């Protein structure tokens, strides 16, 4: 990743990609506290535009607040910086990664005295769980590791720390030949994927876990608007892994994963074993919105020019 052409916004300046470096004694590298976002820009009918830029930027600042990290920029500055990064790299569709972290000014658990740095990179990134996954669904394995309890790393924050737990789940699943891991909470109820929220469909109704140990996903929220438009009822409730086994359909949502059908969990085929009709409807509506084909949702798109 470090060896590419392009520019990265780093502490207020555009820096050549290969020179956007940090010292090995960076506090966040040792103690794991960095807050970040995953954002996408799409080539849309109204030009290249960032999907739900404000919501992602708000969440970045909320993550920082939860961890008492003072971001030395305003939301407006970082929204403009995200637009600039897409523009200067001449990207039509891309993924953006804003990151706020503590620098190398000091060691020791307390970050007080370390400077908060902000970097924003953008690069083309296709379907996170594969084009075939988007069309035909992916195979998922329930992790033997639990999602953090709400009083461990705090799920409202999108913080690097949480992703050590996600990596355990993802590696366990992928090394066993699955595409992604599903995490249960410490009480055994369904939380979320390693990097995605989850929905199931049963008898025409959509269910998703209440927001307890899962990230407050921006795609997750967007899907609820889509379901309202499509007249599909949504219920937030506790789900168990066997609720998913016997669902008619299941799918993951996320900025990277977009709307990805799940065709199998723990070797139980879900529904017909491919993308189901309700998932397909929601997925189609989602791609219409992000690609600017639905004027009702143009306010979710911020053009970069
Ligand atoms: N849960 C986790 C753990 C994630 O990493 C992500 C991706 N950011 C999501 C859910 C989905 O969130 P969003 O739709 O905001 O990308």
Automatic annotation (TrEMBL):
A Pfam match is Aminotran_4
- Reaction catalysis annotation: L-valine + 2-oxoglutarate = 3-methyl-2-oxobutanoate + L-glutamate; L-leucine + 2-oxoglutarate = 4-methyl-2-oxopentanoate + L-glutamate; L-isoleucine + 2-oxoglutarate = (S)-3-methyl-2-oxopentanoate + L-glutamate
Q: Which cofactor does it need?
A: pyridoxal 5'-phosphate
Q: EC class of this enzyme?
A: transferase
Q: What is its EC number?
A: 2.6.1.42
> Which pathway or pathways does this protein act in?
Amino-acid biosynthesis; L-isoleucine biosynthesis; L-isoleucine from 2-oxobutanoate: step 4/4; Amino-acid biosynthesis; L-leucine biosynthesis; L-leucine from 3-methyl-2-oxobutanoate: step 4/4; Amino-acid biosynthesis; L-valine biosynthesis; L-valine from pyruvate: step 4/4
GO function terms (MF aspect): branched-chain-amino-acid transaminase activity
Q: By its UniProt entry, which SUPFAM superfamilies does this protein fall under?
A: D-aminoacid aminotransferase-like PLP-dependent enzymes
Q: Which InterPro entries match?
A: Aminotrans_IV (IPR001544), Aminotransferase-like (IPR036038), B_amino_transI (IPR005785), BCAT-like_C (IPR043132), BCAT-like_N (IPR043131), BCAT_family (IPR033939), Class-IV_PLP-Dep_Aminotrnsfr (IPR050571)
Q: Does the keyword Transmembrane apply?
A: no
Which domain of life does the UniProt lineage start with?
Answer: Bacteria
Q: Can you quote a single GO CC term?
A: cytosol
Keywords from the named record = Amino-acid biosynthesis, Aminotransferase, Branched-chain amino acid biosynthesis, Pyridoxal phosphate, Transferase
Q: Which family does it belong to?
A: Belongs to the class-IV pyridoxal-phosphate-dependent aminotransferase family.
Its function? Answer: Acts on leucine, isoleucine and valine.
Q: What is this protein called?
A: Branched-chain-amino-acid aminotransferase
Query: Which classification does the entry list for the species?
Result: Bacteria, Pseudomonadati, Pseudomonadota, Betaproteobacteria, Nitrosomonadales
What gene is this protein translated from? ilvE
């Amino acid at each position: 990743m470090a060896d590419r052409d392009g520019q990265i916004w780093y502490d207020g300046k555009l820096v050549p990609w290969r020179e956007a470096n940090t010292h090995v004694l960076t506090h966040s590298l040792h103690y794991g506290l960095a807050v970040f976002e995953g954002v996408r820009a799409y080539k849309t009918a109204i030009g290249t535009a960032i999907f739900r830029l404000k919501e992602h930027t708000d969440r970045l600042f909320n993550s920082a607040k939860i961890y008492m990290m003072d971001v030395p920029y305003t939301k407006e500055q970082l929204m403009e910086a995200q637009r600039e990064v897409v523009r200067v790299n001449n990207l039509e569709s891309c993924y953006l990664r804003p990151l706020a972290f503590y620098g190398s000014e000091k060691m020791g658990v307390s970050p007080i005295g370390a400077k908060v740095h902000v970097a924003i990179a953008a690069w083309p990134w296709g379907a996170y769980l594969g084009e075939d996954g988007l069309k035909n669904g992916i195979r998922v394995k329930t992790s033997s590791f639990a999602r953090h309890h709400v009083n461990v790393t705090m799920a409202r924050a999108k913080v690097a720390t949480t992703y050590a737990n996600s990596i355990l789940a993802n590696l366990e699943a992928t090394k066993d030949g699955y595409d992604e891991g599903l995490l249960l909470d410490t009480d055994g109820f369904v939380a979320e994927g390693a990097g995605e929220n989850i929905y199931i469909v049963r008898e025409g109704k959509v269910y998703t876990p209440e927001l307890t140990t899962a990230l407050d996903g921006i795609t997750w929220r967007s899907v609820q608007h889509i379901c309202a438009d499509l007249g599909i009822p949504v219920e937030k409730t506790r789900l168990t892994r066997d609720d998913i086994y016997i669902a008619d359909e299941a799918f993951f949502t996320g900025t990277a994963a977009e709307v990805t059908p799940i065709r199998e969990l723990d070797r139980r085929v879900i529904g017909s074993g491919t993308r189901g009709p309700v998932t397909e409807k929601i997925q189609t509506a989602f791609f219409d919105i992000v690609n600017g084909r639905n004027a009702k949702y143009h306010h979710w798109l911020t053009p970069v020019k």
